[in-house]
């Protein structure tokens, strides 16, 4: 991510209302400490969720984001209260910036309404992109090494060679139904037909072991 000096100096947010957002991951946890910190920071209105950060349906967060107006600042007790991941966090703060809304995290003393705070967040974003590229590169190198070793890549087969042999033996019994054989082997009828193509081509009489 390229850093633009002027972008870091341009004011974003600040001067408007301070809107707080708090979250705990379970109903049994207490929001009191977070709410007290947000109130002490001067938040005029506070939204709060009692849901896991991995839960995409954080209704109160969405309400907070809809409530914010240009020059307002979203305040959270800590970064992990807002984002499910660094990517999610950067995406939310980036959207706020595009609307002229600031972001402030009390625990990390991060404030994007200041040049220093915006610089720190740019570094976060650059690190996240760097880590993503390293993961992609490592994945590609791992796949190449596995292919060089002759390893099979992708999903494992639905039926092993041994299961196919067992299926052929059982299919030789005219009293055994394909459904019962599939159930016994823990696969579907479609899988049986796929791995024993003679069933479609010539019927069970054509099976050879």
Mean pLDDT: 77
Order of helices and strands: HEHEHEHEEHHHHH
Strand content: 5-15%
Radius of gyration: 29 Å
What form results from the Cα inertia axes? elongated
Fraction of residues in helix: 40-55%
Low-confidence stretches: 1-6
Which sheet architecture does the biggest sheet show?
5 strands, mixed
Give me the number of helical elements.
9
Total number of beta strands: 5
Quaternary assembly:
single chain
Distance between the termini: 61 Å
Side by side, the strands of the main sheet go 2-1-3-4-5
Q: Which structural category fits the helices and strands? A: alpha/beta
In words, what does this structure look like?
The chain is an alpha/beta fold. The chain has 9 helices and 5 strands. The chain has helices at residues 5-9, 32-40, 59-67, 86-98, 115-148, 161-171, 178-185, 189-195, 198-202, and strands at residues 18-24, 45-50, 73-76, 102-105, 110-111. It has a 5-stranded mixed sheet, sandwiched between helices. Strand 4 and strand 5 (110-111) form a beta hairpin. Mean pLDDT is 77; it is low at 1-6.
What features would you highlight for this structure?
209 residues, single chain, five-stranded mixed sheet, 5 strands, 9 helices, 48% helix, disordered N terminus, alpha/beta
């Amino acid at each position: 991510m390229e850093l633009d000096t002027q972008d870091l100096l341009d004011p974003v947010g600040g001067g408007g209302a301070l809107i707080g957002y708090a979250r705990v991951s379970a109903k049994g946890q207490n929001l009191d400490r977070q709410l007290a910190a947000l109130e002490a920071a001067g938040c005029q209105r506070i939204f709060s969720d009692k849901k896991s950060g991995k839960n995409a349906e954080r209704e109160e967060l969405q309400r907070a984001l809809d409530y914010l107006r240009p020059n307002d600042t979203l305040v959270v007790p800590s970064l992990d209260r807002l984002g499910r991941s660094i990517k999610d966090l950067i995406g939310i703060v980036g959207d706020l910036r595009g609307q002229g809304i600031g972001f402030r995290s009390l625990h990390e003393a991060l404030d994007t309404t200041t040049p220093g705070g915006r610089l720190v967040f740019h570094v976060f974003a650059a690190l996240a992109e760097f880590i993503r590229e390293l993961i992609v590169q490592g994945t590609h190198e791992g796949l190449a090494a596995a292919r060089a070793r002759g390893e099979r890549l992708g999903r494992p087969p639905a039926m092993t060679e041994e299961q196919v042999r067992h299926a052929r033996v059982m299919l030789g019994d005219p009293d055994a139904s394909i459904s019962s054989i599939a159930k016994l082997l823990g696969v579907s009828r479609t899988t049986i037909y796929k791995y024993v193509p003679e069933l479609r081509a010539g019927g069970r009489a054509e099976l050879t072991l």
